[in-house]
Amino acid sequence: MEKNRNYFVAIALSVLILIAWQFLYVNPKIERERILAEAQKATQQTTAEGQTPAVSGGETVTSGGTAVVPGGTETRDEAVSKAARIKIDTPALSGSINLKGARFDDLKLKEYHETVDNKSPIITLFSPSETPDGYFTEIGYIGNAESGTVPNDKTVWTAAANQTLTNATPLTLTFTNEKGVVFTRTISVDDHYMFTVNDKIDNGSGAPINVSAYGRVTRYNKPTTPSVYVLHEGFIGVIGEHGLNEIAYGKVENDVPVKHEKATSGWLGITDKYWAAAIVPPQTLAYNSKYEHFTDGRPRFQADYQQDAVTIAAGQSSDIKTLLFAGAKQVPLVDGYEKSYAIPQFDLLIDWGWFYFITKPMFKMMDFFFRFFGNFGLAILTTTVVVKLLFFPLASKQYASMANMKKVQPKMEELKAKHGDDKMALQQAMMQLYKDEKINPIAGCWPIALQIPVFFALYKVIYVTIEMRHAPFFGWIQDLSAPDPTSLFNLFGLLPYDVPHALMIGVWPLIMGVTMFLQMRMNPTPPDPTQAMLFTWMPVVFTFMLSTFPAGLVIYWAWNNTLSILQQAFIMKRQGVKVELFDNLKGLFSRKKPDAAS
């Protein structure tokens, strides 16, 4: 019995530690970052109104890719308007391509807004390097004296008049250097977020030339929201046969560049929680790649590659095809790109985590129910029912074991009275009792342990998949990926004042706390005072802890608790064991009368 209790306490404390870390470290950090982001936004607005900020370092690229010039001081509109550009207009994207460098540095996502209000601004992914939030992708070449000038960041490409890049009309750019080498770049884009860059190089120089392609994703800032342990943000890629390679921003800031072994397949880029930019080099030529943080001038992060040189004979041509993903990490879309373009492990662009084998199937199940119900909240509830059904045999063993433990409770009390303080004899007698009654005291713990990965997998799905972003449930829950916006401490909005972040205890966390309290009261109160205190206060602690978690997860937990209560009551009735819930509630809220003798 003691070992059984220790298992329960260990599991409970492990979960408490993880949630306490979220509550005590992550949430205060989120609040600090939010305040800092608001201050930065206010500063940028002041700058746009006419004040000049201090000049910071900027960036451009030479043949090697790292020369520096001042930048980062212009507003986005100023930077976009001063350059010659070709417009991008598709069902999913708007923006433009800078003819200088043929750089993708102006891109917005039409289908996504900054808040749940559809009138709020749409998401900006790429911005010119001259802006504080510079973020772009560029594909160019490195040559030598024989090849002459090759396209890089300084190259101004030529485009026919009145071109617009749409999902139905590709864009054609040309550049001819002083030696007669002609570069023709055709850029196309699908209905969503995949660009195809086809370069044809015609060698009209009269002699063989060698050119080496490079590509890079460069970013000057980091996400304003702090990173959390369940989500990777930063550098990402699958380099050849070496598999997934994820490096956080802080790793390259505080360490040397991360260089990879030469490979002939794969992809690399930079990922956020919901958005990503990734380049897929030609899958037939070997390339070197690295993740790096530059501090020469204006700090910036860069994921880049350089391919082995291609030799083009005089009068001959060569074709080089590069893919660029820039957009929202929609699960079906990313999976489709992996298959249709044969991009190795491209589905790992979405951070499924260690429990990939659970997390992704669970998302697919939820997505199936979403397509049926049209509401992700209902999909979560239905998925919970399916999970409970899958775990029903294990849960039945758990509750049956608990029921059997209750049956032998009187005999255990007799053993305690018989052996007194002789713990060794008591332990041996209890083991013999378990053997005689065919009870496994650990059997009740295994189902809980097996369900913990499922819980974290669901947490992962709700937290990282963009399908959950701004997905409404009913009533006041308009975003299942965000915490419940109501608070007990202003009577759920009835009182006209804002509540501190730490006191945002909404309706659903309270419902979850009540269901957890009732579930724990289904069992007798432990005789040990420490365990009894843990028994009493754990629902309160979890209510505060989970108030900062995504509402979808809290709804899942409350619904799961409710189903568990019904399931446990059914199994206990079937086992002929009394359900302790009502007696426990009576005992909790009634005071024991003192003895007459006292």
Word description of this protein:
The protein is α+β, with helices and mostly antiparallel strands and 598 residues long. Helices cover 38% and strands 23% of the residues. It has helices spanning 2-48, 76-81, 249-253, 331-340, 356-373, 376-390, 392-407, 409-419, 423-437, 446-464, 507-520, 529-546, 551-574, 581-589, and strands spanning 56-57, 70-71, 85-89, 93-98, 103-113, 122-126, 135-142, 158-159, 164-165, 171-176, 181-189, 194-203, 209-219, 234-239, 244-248, 258-259, 266-271, 275-280, 287-294, 300-307, 310-312, 317-328. The strands form four sheets. Strands 8-10-11-12-22-18-17-14-15 form a nine-stranded antiparallel sheet. Strands 7, 13, 16, 19, 20 and 21 form a six-stranded antiparallel sheet that branches. The chain has a five-stranded mixed sheet with strand order 6-5-4-3-9, with no helix packed on it. A hairpin with a 3-residue loop joins β17 and β18 (275-280). α7 (392-407) packs across α13 and α11 (507-520) packs parallel to α13 (551-574). It starts with a helix and ends in a 9-residue tail after the last helix. Residues 1-8, 35-69 and 593-598 have low confidence and may be disordered.
